[in-house]
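Progress against Task 2.4 (sequence-to-structure conversion) is shown through the following example record, which the project officer requested during the mid-term review.
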Amino acid sequence: MHRTARQRFVVFVLPFMAAVVIGVAGGLAVRPAAAQAAVTPNVEYAVVGGKPLRLDVHRPAGKGPFPAIVLVHGGGFTGGSKGAGYTAQLARHLAGHGYAAFDIDYRLLGDLGPGATLEQAMAAAREDLGRAVAHVADDAAAYGVDPDRIAVGGGSAGAITALLATYGKERGNIRPRGVVALWGGMYGQEGAIRAGDPPLLLVHGSADRTIPFAQSEAIAAAARRAGVDATLVRIENGGHTLPVDQPLGGRTIQESVREFLDKTLR
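Structure tokens generated for the chain above:
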């Protein structure tokens, strides 16, 4: 069961691409240096229509069981892949701090055959995320994962997938403990967020011309109305697809993600 926290709203204005953080108060704790993690690439988690779907496993050092996150890359549902870009970078960072991270591939528009629509590609992505989460939960013992502490997240198309699969009108059967959405949106489905849904972290650039910042504002507002804990990090003047490892006033996006997961999964 997901806890519904009474929200406290705090605004931090940071220099450079100033980040404005709206959500639960609390600073970053001092943490030990990242531990060495093991990476196992190209693990098959499902076969759909003859197409193998694979993920990269980033497993922390130690015995576990570990909290986990399943990450979905962006690319407009037409491109992109696991193993590169910010989802792989985020997976490495989180695995170095005690989280098992699974960077997944999923079916894209071109995999669905002639005449397929973007809406069908979005639905396929949601289905494949559900398959990946089920795979991780079913094989939790082998991965050293706690099946009751699994989050989902992604950026751009990956964030849209995680959001709609968890909170949307046609949400799947997945019940993650938390959602991380980097520069994503729900495109009018934010009204489907309901009491008891898991907490979420939204990170978005105020100058994003691909997916407007107003998308994340609408999601955060709908979550608050439903009593769902939401944190919105506004990157002032930031565009689409921001670097996750560059400090914004002393805090990187990957640190904000880790802080959210520490509160949600620990």
